[in-house]
Amino acid sequence: MLNKDILTLFSGLQTIAANTEMQLPAKVAFAIARNIKVLAPIVEDIEAARIHIGETYGILTEQGYSVPGASQEVANKELLALANTEVEVPIVKIKISDIEDLNISVSIAEALIFMIEEEV
């Protein structure tokens, strides 16, 4: 799984977890919680690497790091390499049958799709 995908998936799972009005089956809720715990340290590492790139090539401003034009190309290459780094992630899967009776939005379905295990 690429780092850029991890950031997107983590954000989607956090959005689902923050929705206190939605009641999910225990198995689905557990899978979401477990995947958040697996992804959280990876997201922290990605953010630390991104900040390191900013510190290396940029100047600290009130809005964060500003990378001067001379260093921008190198910083952007490093950020792109970071985003496209492949990471092995042990994802807890669920079956489509675990959520088929739920009334979920498209955005929630998109957030869960990477967790859906093919049923044979």
In short:
The chain is 62% helix and 8% strand. With 120 residues, the chain is mainly alpha-helical.
Characterization of the model:
- This protein has 120 residues and is mostly helical.
- The chain is 62% helix and 8% strand.
- It is built from five helices and four strands; from the N terminus they run ααββαβααβ.
- Strand 1 (59-61) and strand 2 (64-66) form a beta hairpin.
- The protein starts with a helix and ends with a strand.
- The mean pLDDT is 92.
Q: Which features would summarize this protein structure in a list?
A:
single chain, 120 residues, mainly alpha, two-stranded antiparallel sheet, two-stranded parallel sheet, 5 helices, 4 strands, elongated
Q: Which structural class should the secondary elements be placed in?
A: mainly alpha
Q: Report how far apart the termini are.
A: 24 Å
Strand content: 5-15%
SSE order, as H and E?
HHEEHEHHE
Helix count, DSSP H or I runs of 4 or more residues: 5
* Strand order in the largest sheet: 1-2
Which oligomeric state applies? Answer: single chain
Rg is 18 Å
Please write out the topology.
Layout: H1 3-18, H2 26-57, E1 59-61, E2 64-66, H3 69-83, E3 94-95, H4 96-99, H5 106-112, E4 116-117
Parallel strand pairs: 3-4
Antiparallel strand pairs: 1-2
Helix pairs in contact: 1-2, 1-5, 2-3
